[in-house]
Specification:
Blueprint: E1 2-6, H1 10-19, E2 34-38, E3 49-58, H2 61-67, E4 83-84, E5 88-96, E6 108-111, H3 117-120, H4 127-130, E7 165-168, E8 172-174, H5 181-184, H6 187-197, E9 207-211, H7 215-226, E10 232-237, H8 240-249, E11 253-256, H9 261-268, E12 273-274, E13 282-283, E14 287-292, H10 297-306, E15 307-315, H11 328-332, E16 336-339, E17 345-348, E18 351-354, H12 355-366, E19 374-378, H13 383-391, H14 393-396, E20 400-404
Parallel strand pairs: 9-10, 9-14, 10-11, 14-15, 15-16, 19-20
Antiparallel strand pairs: 1-2, 1-4, 3-5, 3-7, 3-20, 5-6, 6-8, 12-13, 17-18
Helix pairs in contact: 6-7, 6-12, 7-8
Length: 408
């Protein structure tokens, strides 16, 4: 089968890490860490697994960071190479193991990528998995499959950027007929956004700041409104097309990254700005909660500055190794800074529910409102064009770029 494979190479990784900030195309060129190749279908690891033929699979910011060598080496002990990329997947079940229950050949499913104890055939399960936090499983290097935090970063499972992958039955969620493939492929990133929003107890009179209006930032805005947050949402976008969608999804105000950003934040949030002897302005007030959906050095520093004393900062984007972040705001303003990784079991409306299940319920209520996030769809042989579009959203006006894996 055709697949986009990531192959480990220290020399190429260092080359990508050094050059892609200045020359993004090298990330998909002849010296790339990825390759379009014909590889064998992955075998079923046990009789509790199924084979899936992807229909569409999304390109995530974490995929781009991996390809460009810009992610943190923190995760290197928890992956196994070579692996097939792609963890945002909707597809059809084509083969089932003899111990699979409740799943049939032909079912249209989305995959919950986390590779926890149950997926790995480990019993008893670890404390994190027993609490429903299986994205933080303590056994991600053990069990019947190779190391890997998620599908798409594990040698044994394959990934969505291919024509076949395997998944444990516990990872599968049937997609309601009312959701199109283009909506269903957003269930995974939408779940990430919902998980982040539900980590904070927001009140109707509060103001939320969403920094970054790529796919995850826009889905965070949609999640805030989907869980019926009635307060004010202020968004910071980089490009006009992002700002337009942010307002469509429920942002009350949109600001843009520019030299005027700090004065505009001061005005919109009605807070006083002060200029230190060196560096960026500081503020005496701010948003009640800031969701950093980029998690770069700049946005992390801004999120801390823009949040009020005793407020909350939630890291939704994937940080690497930030530089130049002034921690004084955390200490002086007594901020609560928390991460929001993946999904699990949520408490919503006094009910314990899988994040993916809740995401599908909320998505159906939105009645197609998220389709506008899908801005491009490419075949696997055209992967360089697809990745170029995703890497240059200002030029391509992309939000979420997909691979179309359906056979012509």
């Amino acid at each position: 089968m055709l697949a986009i494979c990531y192959r480990k190479s220290i020399s190429r990784y260092l080359m990508m890490r050094t050059l892609t900030p200045y020359w993004t195309e090298i990330g998909t060129g002849n010296f790339s860490l990825i390759q379009l190749a014909n590889i064998p279908d992955p075998p079923l690891p046990s009789e509790e697994w199924v084979r899936i033929s992807p229909r569409v699979s999304g390109i995530c910011g974490s995929d781009l960071a991996t390809i460009q060598g810009q992610g943190s080496v923190y995760f290197s002990p928890f992956i196994s190479c070579p692996f097939v990329l792609g963890h945002e997947v909707v597809g059809d079940v084509t083969e089932i193991g003899s111990a699979v229950d409740g799943i049939q050949i032909g079912d249209r499913v989305t995959i919950e990528p986390a590779l926890g104890c149950q997926v790995r055939g480990i019993s008893p399960i670890c404390p994190m998995c027993s609490q429903g936090n299986y994205a933080n499983c303590e056994n991600i290097t053990r069990g019947i499959i190779a190391s890997g935090m998620q599908t798409g970063y594990c040698q044994s499972t394959g990934g969505g950027w291919s024509h076949a992958l395997v998944a444990h039955q516990s990872q599968l969620h049937r997609v309601p007929e009312s959701l199109s493939d283009w909506e269903a492929v957003l269930i995974e990133p939408f779940s990430c956004a919902i998980h982040a929003v539900l980590k904070v107890d927001l009140q109707a009179d509060q103001t939320v700041l969403v920094i970054g209006c790529g796919a995850i930032g826009l889905l965070t805005i949609a999640a805030l409104r989907a869980v019926e947050f009635q307060g004010r949402v202020v968004a910071i976008a980089k490009y006009p097309h992002q700002g337009e969608i942010a307002q469509t999804l429920g942002a009350d105000s949109v600001l843009y990254t520019s030299s005027k950003l700090y004065s505009e934040v001061s005005e919109v949030l009605n807070i006083e700005s002060f200029q230190p002897e060196l560096g960026k302005p500081v503020f005496t007030g701010g948003a009640d909660c800031s969701f950093d959906c980029v998690a770069s050095s700049t946005t992390l520093d801004d999120a801390l500055r823009f949040t009020r004393p005793h407020g909350k900062v939630v890291l939704v984007g994937m940080p690497a190794v930030p530089h130049g972040v002034d921690w004084t705001s955390i200490w002086f303003k007594q901020l609560q800074v928390m991460g929001a990784y993946a999904y699990g079991i949520e408490t919503y409306s006094e009910e314990r529910i899988h994040t993916f299940t809740l995401a599908m319920q909320l998505m159906q209520r939105l009645e197609g409102k998220l389709r506008c996030l899908i801005t491009g769809c490419y075949k696997l042989p055209d992967y360089r064009e697809a990745l170029k579009a995703a890497m240059h959203p200002g030029h391509s006006k992309s939000i979420k770029t997909l691979f179309d894996l359906r056979e012509d």
